[in-house]
Each structure stands twice: as structure tokens, then as C-alpha cells.
Amino acid sequence: MVLFPNEHNIIYPNTSEVPMKKKKPTETWMKEYTLDERKAKFFEFCDKFDERKDDLLRDDFQIFSHRLHWHEHPYVDFLKNKNIDNFHKIWYTIAYSFSNEHWGTFKALYDNGQEGLRQRFERNRHARSDLFQIYYPKGTKVSQWLIDAPLKCAHKMHKVLDERQKPWTMMELAKKFETYFKEEGFRSPLYPCKNFARYMAMTWPDQVDPESVLFGGTGHFDGMQQIFGGKNLNGKVKYDIVDGKFIPQNEAAELWMEQMQELVEDPRNPMHTQKLLNIEDKTCFFYKHMAISHGAKRPTKRIPRDWIFPKEFKLES
Description:
This protein is mainly alpha-helical. The protein contains 12 helices and 6 strands.
């Protein structure tokens, strides 16, 4: 276990050696902590996540590339007060999500449309290389796909927003677009579709409810296991989306919702809005920080900061 000298760094005293499977712990490193102590460590992480004085949180911005309150993001700030029709909301947000949130790609599209993307991609990378792999159909030239396919999607799918009489929930919208992209040949498009739904909700909350349930991915469940112990619930949760609502279909799903509510309602929780969404996000980051601190994971290769944010943006609140 590495203990960093910086007084602001998050440390994990008295953690335990645990068995590893596929380079991941099979149980929490904090198994000697009480549940309340594990929750306290998570909320300490959230507080320090906001400050950015911890070495990892400060220097490895490509890993921890959101603020504590994720809606405080350049994409949201840039678009939220602009008069944009549903067609363009979908076009911009799909392109942004399927480029793995590449800021330069979004700005080229916003400023100059398809031709802006075409010109930019002649000399610049089209997508971030450090996030979850998006499983494009075999043989796809991703840069050309980003020029053509988000526009095609917006043409076909803008009625999803135009004809809606009440706000979508995030998972409801993500599933709707997942179906579209599976029909377009994608094997597993839910990851970018969930990101699309997140950014739609944070930027236009009158159309997509940012307080609704957003089902987490692998990193989220790794973080939840560190806090709550027991078996990792990743892949075990069965649920359905009925009239937009998240409906648990088994005991694992009910347990996951109970655990999420425990964190949301804890008085130490520093998140004051979009709590389910932000808990889902920060548990993932919490695991990454723990895994790197315990030598189970290495930081990803750093990428240029302007792939992620405009120059004037600061991560610390």
C-alpha cells in the first residue's frame, strides 16, 4: 500500500490484502472497516474530489474528468442557455458522446458543422483514446462515422423529443437510442447512449429528468463493492424500464437501489443535486483512486488537456 506524503492526499490506512481475480479485488480492501467507516472514506473522497489538492485528482485529469457535480461541465455550460432545436441537441450530443467526450470534435461540429469536422479530422484526432471502448461495427472508420452518422441519427430521431409530452428518464432515453444504434449494427452501444442521456438531462432538464435513475457500469459497481462489501453486483442486477421508471426484477436490483439510497440520504453526502447521477459517477472514480493507490491499476496515459476541456475551464470548484 502506498501512502503519499502530500497532506491533502487521500490515504487508506489499515486496509487488507485481498484475493484478486482478473486484476480486480474479489472483496473490499476495507474489509476491516465498519460499514460506516467505509461510507465516511467515500464521502471524504467526494470532498477532496471537489478540492483537487490530492495528487492523483489534480494531475491525472484524464481519469477524473468531471467535477463533483457533473452538470458543472463545459458542455452543459456552453449549450444550456442557447436556443437550440431538438434536431441539433441530438446531433451535437450524439457526436460528443460517441467521440468519448472529445471537446475539440464537439466545437468543430458546433462552429462549422460537417465541414468543420471534415477539416479538423485531416490533422487532429477525432475521439478521446482513454475511456471505455465503444464497439463500433466491424470495419467502421470512426472519424468518417462521426462526420455522417450523428447527423443521420438526428434526422431520424428528433421526433423522439419533438413529440414527447413529458420528460424522459435517463435510462428510458438511453434504451431508446440503444435500440436505434443496434439497428445500425452496433454490438454494445449502451455506454455512449447512457452518456448521451446524461448530457441531455444535465443540459436540458425540462426534457430529460436528471434526478432519475441512471444504471451504473463496471467501475460504479467496483466502487459500490468497496463501500458495501459482499459480492460485486456487476452483471447480477436485473431490471426493467416501465413508463420511464426503473423497476428492480431481482434481489440484486433491490439491494443496489437500497445501497444507492443509503448514500444519497447520508447526511455526509456533499452532493446537493442530481444525487443518484453523481453518486453513480463518483463511486466509479472512488474505485479508480483506490485501485491505483493499492497498485491494482495504473493511471491511463495522459492525453492533451484540450481534448477534454476548453483552456479556461478549471476542474476544481
